[in-house]
Amino acid sequence: MLAWMLALAPVQPASKGEVKPATPASKGEVKPATPATPATPTKTIPPSVTKAPTTVVEFEVAAIEQELARGISGLRLPDAPAPYHAQVQLVRASLFGLDGSYGGVITDLVEEQAAAAVEVRVGDAKRDQGGVFGADGPQLRFIMSLEPSSALTRHKLWLALDQAFRAATATYAQKLAILARLAGEPPPPDMGPKPDPIPRQPVATPSNAGFDRDGLRELVRSLSKRFGDHPNVDNGNVLVQILRTHLTTVTSEGVVLHEQRDRAVLVVVADMRAPDGMHLDAGGALHLQVVPRADDDLRKRGEQLIDRVLRELEEQAAAPMLEEDYDGPILFHATAAAQLLASTVATHAGGTPAPLGDAGRVRDFEPHWQDALGQAVMPAFLDLEDDPRDGFGRFVVDGQGYTPQPLTLVKGGVLKELLMTRTPNKWRGASNGRARVSPQLGVGPTISNLTVKAKTRGSSRQQLERELLRRAREDGYDFAYVVEGLRDNNILGPVNREGATAYAGGRKVSLPLPARIFRIDASGKRTQVRGAMFSPASMRVLRRIRSVGNAPVAVPMRIPPGYTGGFGAETGMDGILSHTVDVQVTSPDLLVDGLELLVERSENERLPVLAHPLRPQAAAPAAADDEEEVE
Asked: How far is CA 167 from the centre of its chain?
């Protein structure tokens, strides 16, 4: 369940139905896309104003700047546009991973990796090769030395710049041909204004602290033994992953960014079969922003996590199936409400326009709120604010060198702003510092610390349940449903039941499955059910939030950035650290109308012929045989 990482295996966007892509520019050459790299420290002014390099990292950065300048001035092809912007991203990472199951350690991995990506833009900021579907994906990527090496870096960059330039010129010609065929107004510029310069900061000294390999290995072994206390569970794993990265971005505009970050996660995943054969899974995570040690606190939190995951999985397997489809009101507890917003707002408030295909804009890849600026997208009593200054999603400078400020996305229910990178759309022409970059160099707009704020007094959970049942009666139901949590696809990956997938198209959004959902009747009786799934929904459903709770909960999570990211992105454990960024969503309970629950109609496999070896009925025959031998 461990698969690292870095930038040589690009992530493909999720399929959104049949789309005719633009013809690839040049086979085997990876296309330029968007600039990027997260930020904490630093950005820069042109090299002529900076001091002479003194460290190996500074010498390497200086070599990159020189090679970029040489590329901008020297890369030329007959009858082709010249380059006007170039960028290099370089990531060096220390990786540590453990995977344990039933007291045994399956994987114990420590590894160093280094990779880089290069982008060349040709033409000018008004019209370059960017934004072409099928040719606007990951940047050209290549392996780097584990330690800074100016000579090797220049050699690799020399070849990569040439490849990226040739691909860019081919895509540029293709784009102009597409635009010449299309009627209507010309598209917005392809690149917004460059960020304001700030003084270059010294490179931080990398941490020499090692990983607590022996202690964490023993912790994983100890925690995973607890699966033996739950013989109804078929499989279970305890995983620890740590990723320490140093990410550097250098551009031909004089921007230099350095970010050092430690990220870690302790995860429990498990699966089992219900009596009818339905395959079920559950997972939970402790998301950390420091390198953990196997101390008593982590052990206690790990024990609580594994006990909760296994208890919830067994409760899910024992629950009856959802009996019928339901289109009445639904109450989302605060955690589930935060996950709902991370599955919708985080992706559909982005400002990047739809890519250009042979037949025009591929609207299936355009965030749904993008054309709703100035319109009501939520009830008038709600605001949505994104503040990068404090919280699990905190960052200081975005991946393109912009300093983000607090942003009111929704005010009085009306959409006021979008999550903007440097790619303009027809409503907004400049970045507001929301270009987030994952360690594997995926870049896109997304939230930082998103908060739901209500102008009205919130209700207690008991009051919300009474209102839930009242509204359900108005819809003809004598019961309603409460969702306590959604399935975390960025831990568990895709659902392996065919009937559990609902494909969204057009202006619909696919939502993660309810992980814990309860039917509540007029007497207050709660019955957990399974086999429920949400029908693909319009973003208009957020306008039908009827009431909110009075106890907001801050939920830290890790999601991939961009339109195909969010809480429902299905990275699984292979990409939980490498393909994601840290975010936080704070929300109270939300009472929502307009969502439809469907009964999952999967064909279940038969149960195994032999019982689980840890179950009492499996051990009994062996004990009888032993007694006969003794006699």
From this structure: 28
